[in-house]
Design goal:
- It contains ten helices and eight strands.
- By secondary structure, it is α/β, with parallel strands linked by helices.
- The chain has one domain: Arginase, Chain A (3-Layer(aba) Sandwich), CATH 3.40.800.
- An eight-stranded parallel sheet has the order 2-1-3-8-7-4-5-6, sandwiched between helices.
- Helix 1 crosses helix 10.
- The chain is globular and about 45 Å long.
């Protein structure tokens, strides 16, 4: 069964003037149920992430600032959100959702998180709508509990996974692969184990050729026994923050490439939603929904 992390808190921690792009977290589950891709039984409700799991990745000083709502105005602006207790709680729920998804993926081959993909959270700071790094926290959980020995992060959001790269820069058990816009945020890039920078307006054909050349090679070379897939749909040509030139069909094919390689090689995979900022919410929902449709079709 495809297991998907979701709670209502994913969509409602912010004042109305900060709702975009939060509304997608509410609309996507509704769409998937309406069209029959999943039922209510596919969803599970994660609890609060423990402080122990947070501190395994994030520095004590940073966590205390978050916990006590003590970020400076500059630090708060960097995150893109007004800091609140509800926002910190939301982040803890999302991160626990990715840990739970990792356990479900070990059982079923694949699992999803309606939110997550918070790859701009560093050990000691948050930025770009990310406070705690769910991929890093879940990867550490797997390694610590001997549920995985070598993890591959496949980050295909349009923005570099800079926080994840910083967190795992000295960890040989986690290989970070980020394929992102060259001229896009963050302007200062960290060093992933493999960074592929894409020119503005990169189209479906070019993007998919690069992915197909690199993903199988990385799997062969690194021999991962677990994969985290950051499946942001801000690669779309319609995305307000993206600058690439991909279609919804091309984005769907991207996800198909990832899932088929995981399935063929019997590597459990967790997909976290990541970014998506197209002007029309329908474009965002359709592109994200394709990720779930493919997981259901390929695995179940």
């Amino acid at each position: 069964m495809l297991k998907i992390a979701y709670r209502k808190e994913y969509a409602h921690p912010l004042p109305e003037n900060h709702r975009f792009p939060m509304e997608k977290y509410e609309l996507l589950p509704q769409q998937l149920i309406y069209e029959g891709t999943v039922t209510e039984n596919n969803f599970y409700s994660p609890e609060l992430l423990s402080e122990e799991d947070i501190l395994a990745i994030h520095k004590e000083e940073y966590w205390q600032k978050l916990k006590n709502l003590a970020l400076s105005r500059k630090e708060e602006r960097r995150t893109g959100f007004p800091l609140s207790a509800a926002l910190v709680e939301r982040e803890r729920i999302i991160n626990q959702g990715t840990i739970d998804a990792a356990n479900f993926a070990l059982q079923y081959g694949v699992a999803m998180n309606i939110a997550g993909g918070t790859h701009h959270a560093f050990t000691d700071k948050g930025e770009g709508f990310c406070l705690l790094n769910d991929i890093a926290i879940a990867a550490h959980y797997l390694l610590k509990n001997n549920k995985a020995q070598k993890i591959l992060v496949v980050d295909l959001d349009v923005h570099q996974g800079n926080g994840t790269a910083e967190i795992f820069q000295h960890n040989p058990n986690v290989f970070t692969f980020s394929m992102h816009g060259k001229g896009n945020y963050p302007m200062h890039k960290e060093k992933s184990d493999l960074d592929i920078e894409l020119e503005d307006k990169t189209d479906d054909k070019t993007y998919l050729k690069i992915l197909r050349e690199n993903l199988p090679r990385l799997i062969d070379e690194q021999q991962p026994d677990f994969i985290f897939f950051q499946s942001g749909v801000d690669v779309l040509a319609t995305d307000k923050l993206g600058r690439l030139g991909m279609s919804i069909g091309g984005c769907k094919e991207r996800d198909k490439v990832v899932f088929e390689h995981c399935y063929k090689n019997e590597i459990p995979v967790v997909a976290s939603m990541g970014g998506g900022y197209s002007e029309k919410i329908a474009h965002i929902i359709e592109a994200h929904a394709n990720t779930y449709r493919l997981a259901q079709d390929i695995y179940f």
